[in-house]
Write a structure and sequence with these properties.
Elements lengths: L1 H23 L1 H9 L2 H14 L2 H15 L3 H14 L2 H26 L4
Helix pairs in contact: 1-2, 3-4, 5-6
Length: about 120
């Protein structure tokens, strides 16, 4: 139980840190936020629990393919905030876009014979 609490506090602490840093210096926060900290922590937690390096390798490979469909949201969201009248509509539209691109990515990977 202590391990789960440690995982939750450390993982949540990173999110809090990024949001607090952004209030003071958006550039630094953007750099920290762009780091694959979530992936790195997930790799560490998963490996420490399973000791299965092959599982981490498969997970990293899958993560690579699913990072790609999220990238357009980061480019389009600033424009959508202006066009759609604020943060919430833009966030919703960005999420719909990402889910659609996830679906498309899964279809294309299946057609290409990529096994995740």
């Amino acid at each position: 139980m202590t391990y789960l609490i440690t995982k939750a506090l450390l993982s949540g602490g990173i999110i809090v840190a990024v949001s607090e840093i952004a209030k003071r210096n958006n550039t630094v926060a953007s750099i920290v936020h762009s780091l694959p900290l979530t992936s790195l922590l997930a790799f560490i937690w998963l490996y420490s629990e399973t000791k299965d390096a092959a599982l981490i390798g498969r997970h990293a490979y899958g993560t690579f393919w699913f990072v790609l469909p999220t990238l357009p949201m980061f480019l389009i969201m600033p424009w959508m905030i202006k066009k759609l009248g604020g943060f919430w509509p833009a966030l919703g539209a960005g999420m719909v876009l990402s889910f659609g691109l996830y679906w498309l990515t899964m279809r294309l990977l299946k057609i290409a014979g990529v096994d995740l």
